[in-house]
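User: For my dataset I need records formatted as: sequence, then structure tokens, nothing else. Please produce one.
Assistant:
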Amino acid sequence: MTPKPTALRPRFTTSVTGDPARATAPLPQRARRALAAISGDRPLEELVVLAAAVAWTVGLAEHTNEVGLAVVGPTGPVTVAVELDDATTPAQLVVRLDGALRAAAGGTAPVDVAGALLVGSQRVGDDAGAAGALRVTLGAPSGERRDLVAAAAADLAEPWFLHVLLRSVTAVLTAFEEPRRPLAEAAAGAPEDLAAARAHGRGRYTSEACDTTLTAPIAMVAAADPERQAVVAGHRSLTYGQLWEAAGGVAARLAALGVEPGGMVGVDTGESIHAVPAILGVLRARAAYVPLDRHAPVEWTAAVLADAGIDVVLSDRDLGVGMAAARPGLVIINPADDVSDPPAPVPASEPNADDIAYVLYTSGPTDTPKGVVVRHRAVADHVRWKIAHNGSDGEVTLLQIPSRACDSSMSDLFPVLSAGGRVVLADPVGTKPAELADVVARHRVSQFTVTPSTYRLLLDDLAPVANSLRLVTVAGEPMPADLVARHRAVLPGVRLVIEYGPAENSVGVTVFDHDAEGSPRFPIGSPLPNTVVRVVTATGRDLPPGFVGAIRLSGHGLADGYPGRPGLTAAAFATEPPVPFDREHDTGDLGWWRPDGVLEFAGRVEDRITIQGQRVDSDEVADVLGRIPGVRAADVEIDDSGEVHRRALASAAYEGGDPVDRDAVEVAVTEVFREALGGRPVAVDDDFFLLGGHSLLGLSVLEAIEDRLGVMISVNDFFATATVRAVAEQVRAARGTSVAVTRDEPPVQASQDPDALARLLDEFQSPGAPDQVS
């Protein structure tokens, strides 16, 4: 099989139309000497050396260890795939490529170079104007000057990226002066480009750390204006004075139970009026609060309690016997209870900046909970920035939508309360988008934070009622360009901001204001003043703008790490980074710098693979498939046997993805789950929420079930057991029917011919498309 040449990820900052981009750069004397030293100044050998340098450079640019390229020699292009690794030296790379080219040149199959990465030299008759998505050409000698030329289609790259690419090829060629030194030790770009990237990453950084806590600003508001309204939940509300007093009561009860500074307290209060006093009360006791997701499985919550060593939980509900059995001796305090005996006094000392504020639990590599420890100092820095960035003051009313178990809730609550604003709590679970929009109108909400998928559900309902809305912040997922366009069309006067950041960096890392010029990619903005961002190679070397690499963080916002998991902490938090900080966090995300200093998101490291020189991003492939007319959802899975099982894939698509006997209700419910989850595979016993679903998506599932199956499912029953099997049984119970096992029925709009998809896959071999994706 002929290797497919690498197709670059588009590098442009705005929508580009018009003439192809082109860049020319002179080849410096050092690079010319290195080129001549290895090639002996022979044209064909020179072409191999140039191709080796381009392959390494493109591997860096695409964050891939396999590059496919077409080398244009005297008899035409020869396509090869080149393996790269950190130990590769220039000598090894040239020998490897030379052997691959000689083997490939002996074949007689025609080479399709449409959309390919082509490398050529005018000394062997190459024409720089020939077709190709990206082309790098070394000009013939002209006196003391030789030029490198790069050309690309207009929708692939702007000239700035081609200039960066050529300067990087030059830097790599210069490293060939030391042919036995690993290329991973060489600079990945020209000095001026690497300096620009470093400047982008720390352009707004301030060395002044925040020396305050989450509670201190709220205490000041409570003292200055105790009658100001602070929290609203349903028909109940709290003033700042009442909020601070209630928090003091919680702190006193915790102290009476023996909770000491640094202790861990679980908080499971939902969206009740007691939710915020419970959180503040834990902090006032100088303890750390651990938010518990009341919609998570019991096993997950029990694992969190055990891992954090929690003996006390603040909850306004019965956690159930299962929880008590999992954590013997667990004390549950209902913050709503009246206390007849006067509790112990509020602890005399308020928290300090070095106290742990909260421990947020996420899933680890084995889907077991892992905690992220964040201190007051780190997150208070984020709060200070957000107040200034959002222009928050006492007139702000925020609708708090994210779960308390999500760090976006911290980014909502504390900046608004610290500024003297008002927080409206609304439980998204069981609340339809139109009802949330009604809350926005009723309380004159001016801002809220949501995920893009949630915002997609809410947007149309907000249009007629959102006169008070001034700011929408989206976080947690890439923001699709079509949703940005919809926002501008539906709410043209409302500011749209995207925030990016992992829990390991105290909520936020970068921010991007979508009121600026739009982007066809996934911009996540420029770094916050408390964070330095680097985009680096696998070995931690800085990359120039436009090159995709690992996103690493350092600065005041870093969390302490994962308690009880030294191995994970050591892997995610490097202790000797080449930056002026003692630690650096590897996010596991990929990104690249635009020339204006904006960071573009490029997916997760584990979502990127290379197949015969073709870089494959499963999310991008799924996005393209989802645009095909008639496709409602799409997902991409990689087959490790190395073959495309077209017949099995067609059968799976025809039968709903589960080739076992199932009744039609389960098939329909499976399809609804898949659509809500963006097309990802769903098995009959998979839990909707563990697959990435959330409350508003859950409501869309219930609405879809009502539309397609004609029955209404209880919201509480769904959130209690959100599997395909359980929901299907609820549908049958509502219908008063029993299970009738049949072969799966195809979706209504699916082809009735199971061979049709197989034939389509056989025909779907477009240039640059991966041919081992199933």
